[in-house]
Amino acid sequence: MALLELRNVSKIYHLGGEEIRALDGVSLDIGGGEFVSIIGPSGSGKSTLMHILGCLDTPSHGTVTLDGTEVQRATPRELAHMRNRKIGFVFQFFNLLPKLNVVQNVELPMIYAGVSGRERRKRAEHALELVEMSHRLKNRPSQLSGGQQQRVAIARALVNDPKIVFADEPTGNLDTHTGEIILALFRKLSQEGRTIIIVTHNPEIAAVTPRRIEIRNGKIAEKVDERLAGLDRLAAKAGSLAPAA
Amino acid sequence: MSLWNAIVVGLKEIWAHKFRSMLTMLGIILGVSSLVAMNALVQGMENGARESLVAVGGLSKVRVEAQPVPVEQRHMRDLAVGVTMNDVYALQHSAPEATLISPEMRLDGFNPTLSAKGKTYRTWMTAGVWPVQLDMMEHKIAHGRMFTQMDDEMARNVVVIGTGIRDELFGKPEETGEPVIPVGETLTINGYPFTIIGMFEHYESEQERKTRELREKEKAAQLAAGTTNQATGPQRSRGWGGSGGRRGGNFAFWIKNNTVYMPLNTMWMKMKSGQSNAPAVPTLSSIEIRVADPNRIGEALTQVRNVLMVTHRGIEDFSFRTQEDWADQINTFISSARTSGGLIAGISLLVGGIGIMNIMLASISERIREIGIRKAVGAGDVEVFIQIIIESTVIAIIGGAVGLATSFGLIQLIASVTPTDNAPVVTFGSMAMAFGASVTIGVFAGLIPAFRAARMNVIQALRYD
To answer: Touching check for B8 and chain A: CB below 8 Å?
Structure first.
């Protein structure tokens, strides 16, 4: 069984009597250890898909199974538990808490997991070592550059050893060079065997991942239109970033 | 998320907004300190009132007095004997609920005139009593002795006086600068010479004692410094209010200090029986009775009444006077003072609570994104709820603790602005109650903001700018 299974998932919003199908009958399997990008223009429903995959939201119809648990039946408390233990999030705007320093930010998910203080500290420092941020433990997020903040956010996403890491436009707020470093970091994590799902509208980033899922009008496009997405050009150009496959 | 973590997060949040948190706490601080101060003032008043009640013998004391014959028994009024020594003997034999029985005989008509050393003074608290009256009225002999049963039987011309009489006839020790103990001196009452054989101690309330000690200390300091601040010119009397301290609850102490006791037999044989309007048998002004148990005062009074109905041949020409009315008055006054003061303090606590709620609402709308992040990394609704509740509770607890500390200052302030007879008394109970109320208010003020924060949608909160 795949790590993530979506069967005929729909998400319907009601806006002033009008029915909006943000997702329309999506079925999808993502296995453990996969490095996937979800690509599509804004308004295509890719954010909604990520919210449902990431247990931030529940589908209107259909079933979502994450690591054997049916998400659509889970209570808010169980959803919070799954977000805490099985999922790590990396956001476009980093979303670090400004009042906490780097270590405290990384410790945050473990506080809700009930990890003891000493263990928390140890694991937070280890996670920060993975993203090469061990030298800035006591700094506030506002004292860090964008790339450094994003690396702290990745450390936070990894600290509870989740099954899946979601990244929502992780490079959207960074310059090209820093973005490449962050992507390289994701690739390294993928090679270490983690399941990583990147949501982006940027084909250059999607080009890095071996599997690409394109969303159009709330549905999965049958076949990724490489020419439309500009991927054919990029695949050749960005050889250094593309996976070894 | 452990409770300790939540408290630390709450404290950090408060520290991050020091000024705002302080203003928020101010409401609770004022509420708690006014609650404690109000309680202390009322407690002081209650203590003063109870002190006076104890000074006159407390609740277990009952006075039997003569009263006019009731209307339905008017035709038998010639048979009415009044309160006499026969009643005392009968009660001694037949009323075990009355543990102490003390007859009191006063002069009729004008207040007797006391004179000594060329000064005169009139007081109606001149009575012929048994030695047992000493216990009955909670008197203590400071100098000399109380007269004995022997003195009573021999009808000796001896008296025991209070310090008020001493002050009027022999001079105040405060003015002469040395103790005045007129034991052994002679005093005339309506012209009859008496030897003073004893003097009571000076009775005063707590407050009076404190002011007197303060005055003495000042005087000693002045003497030590060599500067005397003595009044010049003729002595002036400050009238009724100033001289005896006849205000409010201090009246009970004033009366005790202005007492003159002589043996009952002396009063009867030397001063009353020879008068032209004297009754045939020794008629008493009143009988003081102490009952065994103030909680069973009803039963005791019934017993006393049954005995007296025999000696009075069924004519009800006597009545009882208890201190119950006084005690009831004290209770009513104290409870109404408590209620009104508590209401005001409660309102200010409530206002403080509203302040907390207001600031917590502002705080969560400022931190929508933070709440979204916390939820995204695994905080459940319950954890968010608890975090907000703890923050508001921590504000209330700190405010309550500071309020308790401030209350002492507030009490000093109130006491200096409005001088009362009774020093305020801070009780542990009132402090615990005020603190408990502030914590409760903190929890309740946090409920609505915490509920809102917990119900926030993760996705919308994360997108919020």
So the answer is: no
Question: Residue B445's pLDDT is what?
Answer: 92
Q: What is the pTM of this model?
A: 0.68
| CA-based nearest residue to A149, from A167, A125, A129, A173 | A173
Instruction: Give the model confidence (pLDDT) of A166-193 as tens digits.
Output: 998 888 888 888 888 888 888 888 888 8
Q: Rounded to the nearest 10 degrees, what angle do helices A76-85 and B368-376 cross at?
A: 70
Residue with tokens 């009042």: A99
Cβ atoms within 10 Å, residue B17: 15
Low-confidence ranges of chain B (pLDDT < 70): 1-2, 57, 226-249, 418-421
For residue range A13-53, what is the model confidence (pLDDT) as tens digits?
888 888 888 888 888 899 888 999 998 888 888 888 888 98
Rounded to an integer, what distance in angstroms lies between the CA atom of residue B369 and that of residue B127? 86
- Residue B286 sits at φ, ψ, to 5 deg, of -165, 165
Chain A residues with CB under 8 Å of a chain B CB are: 51, 56-57, 76-77, 80-81, 83-85, 89, 91, 95-97, 99, 108-109, 111-114, 156, 160
Compute the nearest-CA separation of B383 from chain A (Å): 8
* Nearest in space to A152 (alpha carbons), one of A178, A172, A133: A133
| Structural domain boundaries in chain B | 3-53+329-463, 58-224+238-323
Verify whether the Cβ–Cβ distance A77 to B12 is below 8 Å.
no
Give the number of beta-carbon pairs within 8 Å between A and B: 62
From the list B372, B378, B380, the residue facing A109 with the nearest CB is: B378
A95 to B16: CB separation less than 8 angstroms, yes or no: no
Please report the ipTM that was assigned to this predicted complex.
Answer: 0.88
| pLDDT tens per residue across span B362-376 | 989 988 999 999 999
What is the distance in angstroms between the Cα of B452 and the nearest Cα belonging to chain A?
A: 15
